Amino acid sequence: MLPVECLTILSNPVEASSSPSLLLYPFLPRSPFLQTLPSHTHNHSTNYTLHKLKMEQSQEEPTKKPPPPLRSSPPAIILRRFEPSPSDATTLFSWASDPRVTRFLRRGPVPDSDAALRYITDHILPHPWYRAICVPPSDTPVGSISIKPGPVQEKNTRFRSASVGYRLAHAHWGRGIATAALRAVAAAAAFAEWLQLDRLKAVADVENLASQRVLEKAGFRREGVLRKYVRLKGEETRDVVMYSLLSTDDTNE
Ligand SMILES: CC(C)(COP(=O)(O)OP(=O)(O)OC[C@H]1O[C@@H](n2cnc3c(N)ncnc32)[C@H](O)[C@@H]1OP(=O)(O)O)[C@@H](O)C(=O)NCCC(=O)NCCS
Predict the structure, then answer these.
(1) Which of 20, 46, 113, 158 sits CB 3.0–4.6 Å from 93 for a disulfide?
(2) Which residue's alpha carbon is at the smallest distance from atom 1 of ligand 1?
(3) Would you call 253 exposed, middle or buried from its count of C-beta atoms within 10 A (0-12, 13-18, 19+)?
(4) What region holds the N-acetyltransferase domain (predicted)?
């Protein structure tokens, strides 16, 4: 019996009944590798758990085509909801207060853990889709990723596009974590939760090369530079690069 590894992203059918459980092969094109799995009783609402699943290739079935070989192993991640707890507030503060993390973000550093708790309560909890990025077995957030659908188009109350944002604690940069989270979001969450969604978009500062690279690795396409598009921290207005991923995009190009 030859063990072959693949990855799963499992969603909870309780809250996100329209969101199937998904099987995703890492670092390979999105759509051809998604597959519906049987219903799963995971205990977190709309949490996306990326974990290893062992598959066995039966020697009795020599004609069965094995999955394509893995080019590299992305890190396992868990996307979970933030809790309005001192623990999550303290952790959020630990990296949201870091100027290296907030450099290209509209909001400045969070000043203290009380402000972090208020941010969780006032901004994160009412947000349509905002998740903590955790690296198992730890349940401690090392970053966040969010999707905001909209705007609603005239004569059509259904969302057709949504914006993605993400950030990660500096100590965890360069390990593929943001790419894994974005892939999980792009593949498993957005188009599954908002079925009418045509377009996921993200903007990255022209100097934020790491974020641009993350978007490209996750299959987003570079559309162009928007000049003087975002005002950072009430100061300078910056040029950004617009990226998008369409529900119809073939990322196998
Ligand atoms: C952008 C950010 C989320 C990336 O997270 P990450 O987990 O380190 O990203 P990954 O490891 O998945 O990929 C980073 C890629 O950028 C590349 N990269 C990093 N710094 C780079 C630089 N200065 N120039 C060019 N490429 C760079 C890495 O080499 C890697 O690409 P590779 O896999 O081809 O080698 C993280 O740096 C961050 O939180 N930054 C602050 C917040 C932020 O800017 N958020 C995005 C707002 S649009």
Answers:
(1) 113
(2) 211
(3) exposed
(4) 77-247
The pLDDT tens digits of the residues spanning 172-196 come to 999 999 999 999 887 668 888 888 8
Give residue 178 CA to ligand 1 midpoint distance, Å: 7
Return the CATH number of 78-203, one of 3.30.565.10, 3.40.630.30, 3.30.930.10, 3.40.50.300: 3.40.630.30
Q: Which of ligand 1's atoms lies nearest the C-alpha of 175?
A: 11
pLDDT attached to residue 39 = 32
Distances (CA, A) of 95 to 21, 92, 112, 184: 31, 6, 11, 22
Question: Strand 141-149 relative to strand 161-168: parallel, antiparallel, unpaired?
Answer: antiparallel
What's the pTM?
A: 0.77
Cα–Cα distance measured from residue 242 to residue 60, given in angstroms and rounded to the nearest whole number: 50
Q: Which of 5-9, 121-125, 137-141, 211-215 has the lowest mean pLDDT?
A: 5-9
For CATH 3.40.630.30, the residue range(s) in the chain are 78-203
CB atoms within 10 A of CB 8: 18
- The answer, yes or no, to whether any atom of ligand 1 lies below 6 A from the CB of 175, is yes
- In the block, residue with structure tokens 């903590």: 132
Q: What are phi and psi of 174, to 5 degrees?
A: 80, 15
Task: Find out whether the beta carbon of 240 lies less than 6 Å from any atom of ligand 1.
Answer: no
